[in-house]
Specification:
14 strands; six-stranded mixed beta sheet; alpha/beta; Rossmann fold
């Protein structure tokens, strides 16, 4: 049995998916020359993953976006070894990548409690430094959300992504019968009867040419990178962006979506993907579905007659193809079950891969025993 929570949706007004901060470690404390005392080291600046925090909250709570750690305590006759300055913690959501301004990756925070040192405090004054302290490390850093949901809904405008999200999770994204209703990610959560939750993001609609930054362009495609798996949502009747643009069949829509992802970053196509054929409540839907299924079964041959600007180099091997109607609820229970199954299968594969990597690393650390010379048949 699958059920959905009523209070399971958080709407991101002015959605913030990256933020630039200035961080500075604390300066060290002064040493005490006449007694050889050493000043305390300056405090460090850490970024720590914490549940319930968003980048927008950081932006609103700290408008200066500056974080400085405490100064180390001076050496004195009462305490020759000065105390360390107070550390500063920046609480951030899990699933972020921390980089420098020039793009160097400092680290990732993948789960709650993960910590990353981003600015080290200066050393306290000592005999080696003439009892003079050093300043703390200073630099700008960027926090980028690399994961916003388990699944991302990928589709052209008006494919019914927002309606599907509403039907799956009781979320309330803006829905209208015109393209570009969704201008920022909307996150809904499917809750199962054992309280497992799966997050699904309704991403801004893609258009042809998104890989060269047309429409929402790179902003949309960046969000696609930040989901574990993809759900392609295709209108069974096809798609037409405007009166002066070509009418695309459902099969061509699948190919175009694939091509846009491929041209932006080919690795995106390695994500597990489910194909959802929406609007199956329409009168002509079942005839079109049979045609689409035949084309998908013979993708290579079916696309040979199409122009080059439609055909991708790589074809997506969908884990499942599910016909649904977000309006009537047709196929939604099947889709919910497959969404969870695919995610759990991916988790098992990742766990086994991580276990193998750890085992291989441990084996490399075990020294190879030396063979004594008398055990060598060729030694005399």
């Amino acid at each position: 049995m699958v059920w959905t929570s009523r209070v399971c949706f958080r709407k991101y007004g002015n959605f913030v998916d990256n933020i630039r901060l200035y961080v500075r470690g604390g300066s060290g404390g002064m040493g005490l020359p006449r007694l050889g005392g050493q000043g305390g080291n300056g405090g460090d600046v850490w970024v720590m993953a914490k549940e319930g925090v968003t980048l927008k909250q950081i932006k609103d709570k700290h408008p200066s976006k500056r974080f400085t750690a405490g100064v180390g305590f001076n050496s004195s006759i009462h305490a020759l070894k000065g105390a360390k300055g107070e550390d500063t913690q920046i609480f951030a959501p899990a699933g972020i990548c921390v980089t420098t301004d020039n793009g160097k990756i400092l680290g990732e925070l993948n789960s709650e409690g993960d910590r990353l040192l981003v600015a080290r405090g200066g050393h306290g004054g000592s005999l080696q430094s003439g009892f003079l302290p050093s300043k703390g490390q200073t630099r700008p850093i960027r926090l980028d959300l690399k994961l916003i949901a388990d699944y991302g809904l990928v589709g052209f405008p008006n494919a019914g992504k927002s309606s599907l999200l509403t039907a799956l999770s009781h979320a309330k994204p803006k829905i209208a019968s015109y393209p570009f209703t969704t201008l920022r990610p909307e996150i809904g959560k499917i809750m199962y009867d054992d309280h497992r939750q799966v997050s699904v993001a309704d991403l801004p609609g893609l258009i042809e040419g998104a890989h060269v930054n047309k429409g929402m362009g790179h902003k949309f495609l960046k969000h696609v990178e930040r989901t574990k798996q993809l759900i392609f949502v295709v209108d069974i009747c096809g798609f037409q962006l405007a009166n002066n643009t070509p009418v695309r069949s459902a099969f061509e829509t699948v190919l175009l979506l694939t091509k846009e992802l491929e041209l932006y970053k080919e690795e995106l196509l390695s994500k597990p993907a489910i194909l959802v054929i929406n609007k199956m409540d329409l009168p002509e839907a079942h005839g079109r579905l049979r045609e689409l299924e035949s084309q998908l079964k013979n993708q290579q041959e079916s696309q040979d007659s199409l122009p080059d600007d439609v055909r991708p180099k790589t074809l997506v091997d969908f884990t499942n193809i599910v016909p649904v109607s977000a309006t009537t609820g047709l196929g939604l229970s099947v889709l919910k079950a497959l969404i969870r199954k695919s995610l759990e299968e991916q988790d098992v594969i990742q766990t086994e891969s991580q276990r193998s990597e750890k085992l291989l690393k441990l084996r490399r650390q075990i020294p190879t025993p030396a063979i004594p010379s008398w055990g060598n048949p060729h030694s005399v």
